[in-house]
Amino acid sequence: MSYRFHATRTFWRNFSKLPRKQQESARRIFGVFRENPFDSRLRTHKIHKLSAHYGKTIYAVDIEGDLRAVFYLEGGTVWSVDIGTHKIYRG
After folding, report:
1. Which of 86, 80, 87 lies closest to 15, judged by CA?
2. What per-residue confidence (pLDDT) applies to 91?
């Protein structure tokens, strides 16, 4: 499937706060993410608490260590909503 990709202001604000090395890691991972957000290398998984909170299925991908990016699908669009540690799962 072909997806369109968008990111929220929250995502970009938190991305800009990451150390340069984590930003570089995220950019590398997003190369894979743009090809397929469910690629097994990303270890994409549902975040049940956030899904219940927002009333839609929320997913996370592993970037490195404790760094995650959170997104959801809306039709053919992938919305990246946040990036950070597991703390972003709290909603």
Report:
1. 80
2. 60
The CATH number given to whatever domain includes residue 74 is 3.30.2310.20
What average pLDDT score do residues 73-87 get?
92
CA dihedral 56, 59, 24, 28 (to 10 degrees): -110
Q: Show the domain range for 79.
A: 4-90
pLDDT over 70 at 2, yes or no:
yes
Measured distance CA(74)–CA(41) in Å, rounded: 22
- pTM attached to this predicted model: 0.90
Count of structural domains, the chain: 1
